[in-house]
Structure formats: structure tokens, C-alpha cells
Design brief:
CATH class of the largest domain: Alpha Beta
Order of helices and strands: HEEEHEHEEEHHHEHEHHEHEE
Number of strands: 12
CATH architecture of the largest domain: Alpha-Beta Complex
Radius of gyration: 20 Å
CATH superfamily of the largest domain: PurM-like C-terminal domain
Number of domains: 2
Strand order of the largest sheet: 8-10-7-11-9-12
CATH topology of the largest domain: Phosphoribosyl-aminoimidazole Synthetase, Chain A, domain 2
């Protein structure tokens, strides 16, 4: 006998909240949440559509994990501590095996970050997941896109390009050793939300953004909001060992790192006076300085010899031609 919508919700998505600020969670017409005085509420929504945001054969556990991870990344980019999420899930059928694995991926990551699922909706339709996340931070301390100034150093966490290479492996466009392929696929399916880094950057970074549509495109949002430009040192772009092995040709690796997307790393700027401290301090994840904010608009790409390099420039755009 097929499981009902309400049984799915009760079995896989209804759990006692471990947060004292959840006054009423899943099971009523709305959640009731307590925001402490002096705190600002950060809110973001992301949608994942099968065949657009993840390949159709992606494991359900990875889909559940990533659906929450991309929202946690938005909180990280704002310097907010994630608190509550709601989940809207469209399913072609009540496949209990899929939902069980999806919930395990989603709820496991939620527990890891102390996030409570407080509501949502489940319907029948094409596979599509929408998550709304709310986070908290002291009023006036949010990281924003508009604060970069000429002279600021540009930093990035992790290794941009790994997720795009993982997608290329999945789609059969990139051949590499089995262990490298496994690593790259995992970076695609299980991005690491840099929540701890985002919290540590409050009061330090002048501007910040998470990398969802490609480093160049997302850095471009900081530049537009801040009214300035950037000079990137291509040789400073970090590359993981699996990406270097899969793409030994330098320009291909640069292209993947700049325009691949789906990394959910943080790109941020820091006033020049603080850059040495950033480079010497210990952080929750590896950080790399990759360039400098300049006054002239636009993104300049330089090699180690200071020569200007031209690469195709495009980030992900839902309404561009495939």
C-alpha cells in the first residue's frame, strides 16, 4: 500500500526540535519562532530542480544534503548563524526509499549545524526541492556585497572548480583516475557550507558572497555592488590535486575554477591593512588570496608575468541558451 503524504511527513520530517527558540514546529499551519532582542533575521530561499541543478540519477541522499547545503552557504555568505528551515518537496511518486535517503542527507546536515526543520509542504509533481532558511546575527554585523574598496585583498576558500569538474565527470566530458573522479563527484554532490568561516569573517571582511554560479560571475556581483573592479592573479587560483591531475593544461583549469560554479565556497574582500593577518591566522578552512580590488571597473586576469590573459567569461544563467 502506497504511503500517504502525511505519513511521509510524520515519518521522515517530524522530529522534536533541539532549539529552545522553536515555540512551535512541524504540524501546524505555521511555525512559531523566537528572535532574541538585538538580533537581525537573515532569510534566503533556494530551489533545486532535477535535470537543472543536479543530474537525474543523483543519489537521493546527496540531493537531500545539497538542498540544505546551498542554503547554509547563503547564511555563511551573510555571516549569519543558521537556525531554522522549511522544506517544500515535489515528488513524482511517494517513493519511500527515495524519501528515506533524502531525509537522511537533509536531516543529518541539519543536525550537524544545529538547524531545526520547522515546516514546509509535500506535493506530487516533477522532482523539485525548495528550501527557505532563516539565520540570526547581531544587528548591523551582516556581511554584504557592497563594501569592497580599491586596495582590498580578494580571498577565496577551498578549491573552486572541483564541483564543475565533478559534473564533467558525471556527464562523461572528463576522464580521470577512479579516485580523482570519486573526489570530484563528491565535491559536486556534497559541497561544504562554510558556515564557521562566515561567522569568523564578521567584522573582518569588507564584502562577501558565496560561489554558486562561478567565481568570476559571483565576484562580479561584489564589483557591481561596490562600484569597482578587480585584478585576479590566475596562478594564485587554488587547484586541488585531483583537478590538476584531470586538467593538467593550465588554461583549462583556470576556466573551470573561474566559470564552473556549484562550489559554494566563499569569496570575500579584506582591507589591505588586514590582509597579512588573514594570511597568517588559522581559519576553519584553507584560504587563498587571489587578487586585489582596483578602481577601474571590470575584471582583469593576469598570469605570473603580469600579462593580461583573455578567457571566455560566463557564469551560470538559468535563462541563457544551453
Amino acid at each position: 500500500m502506497p504511503i500517504s503524504e502525511f505519513d511521509l511527513i510524520q515519518r521522515y520530517f517530524t522530529h522534536p526540535s533541539q532549539r529552545d527558540d522553536v515555540l512551535l514546529g512541524v504540524g501546524d499551519d505555521a511555525a512559531l519562532l523566537q528572535v532574541q532582542p538585538g538580533m537581525a533575521l537573515a532569510l534566503s530561499v533556494d530551489m533545486l530542480v532535477a535535470g537543472r541543478h543536479f543530474p537525474e540519477d543523483t543519489p537521493a541522499h546527496a540531493i537531500g544534503y545539497k538542498a540544505l547545503a546551498v542554503n547554509l552557504s547563503d547564511m555563511a555568505a551573510m555571516g549569519a548563524a543558521p537556525a531554522w528551515v522549511s522544506l517544500a518537496l515535489s515528488l513524482p511518486e511517494a517513493d519511500e526509499g527515495f524519501v528515506s535517503a533524502f531525509a537522511e542527507g537533509f536531516m543529518g546536515l541539519a543536525r550537524e549545524h544545529g538547524v531545526a526543520l520547522v515546516g514546509g509542504d509535500t506535493v506530487r509533481g516533477p522532482l523539485c526541492i525548495s528550501v527557505q532558511i532563516q539565520g540570526l546575527l547581531p544587528a548591523g554585523q551582516a556581511l554584504r556585497r557592497h563594501g569592497a574598496r580599491p586596495g582590498d585583498g580578494i580571498f577565496v576558500s577551498g578549491n573552486p572548480g572541483d564541483a564543475a569538474a565533478g559534473l564533467a565527470v558525471v556527464q562523461g566530458r572528463l576522464d580521470c583516475r577512479d579516485d580523482d573522479a570519486d573526489y570530484l563527484r563528491r565535491r559536486l554532490n556534497y559541497p561544504t557550507p562554510r558556515v564557521a568561516l562566515g561567522l569568523a569573517l564578521r567584522g573582518v571582511a569588507s564584502a562577501a558572497i558565496d560561489i554558486s554560479d562561478g567565481l568570476a560571475a559571483d565576484l562580479g556581483h561584489i564589483l557591481t555592488a561596490s562600484g569597482c573592479g578587480a585584478l585576479l592573479q590566475l596562478d594564485a587560483l587554488p587547484r586541488s590535486a585531483p583537478l590538476q591531475a584531470a586538467l593538467p593544461e593550465q588554461q583549462q583549469a583556470w576556466q573551470m575554477a573561474l566559470h564552473g560554479g556549484d562550489d559554494y565556497e566563499l569569496c570575500f574582500t579584506v582591507p589591505e591593512r588586514d590582509c597579512a593577518r588573514i594570511e597568517q591566522a588559522e581559519w576553519p578552512c584553507p584560504l587563498h588570496r587571489i587578487g586585489t580590488i582596483v578602481a577601474d571597473p571590470g575584471l582583469q586576469l593576469h598570469d605570473r608575468h603580469g600579462r593580461c590573459v583573455e578567457l571566455d567569461r560566463h557564469g551560470f544563467d538559468h535563462f541563457a541558451n544551453d
